[in-house]
Amino acid sequence: MFALLSLAAIPAAYYATRLKNVNVPQAVAGEAVAGTLLGLIAVILARGARRRVERTLTRPGEGTAKAGKWLGWLGLCLGLTAALALGFFGLLLLYE
Question: What pLDDT sits at residue 91?
Answer without folding.
Answer: 94
